[in-house]
User: Fold this.
Amino acid sequence: MLYDKLLMRAQNDGIVVYEYPLKGNLKGLYKDGIICIDKRLDTSTKKACILSEEIGHHHTSCGNILDKRDLNSIKQEKLARVWAYKEVIPIESFINAHVRGIRNRYEFAEHLEVTEEFLEASINYYKEKYGLFIKMGAYTICLEPLGVLEFFE
Assistant:
């Protein structure tokens, strides 16, 4: 399971992870090598998406970034999310899904063990970075509409 893999990744990175009921609408927090995941999240899929971003904070953020109106906080939140997208849904996973016969976003999210919202956000990130098409060897990844084209020699 992805959540278990991310827990191992956190441990290997020297991060301690706790599941604890968080206040308000917080789903995860990172500070000084400690991650708290909201214990009330009802699926390991949701927990995995939150955990991946919090591990991203470990690798990309510094200082207190809780103020969502501060430009620096917004930038660091985005960096952590981008880290999570690249780690959990690397661009090659689109080709792997195509090869495995996965044909829609729901199946793709289920295969990756992420929420559809996390998948959609990662697709939007890749569109911002690469545009609508990404050429990789004999494959072209189409990000809108989502699909993979395979060219034969």
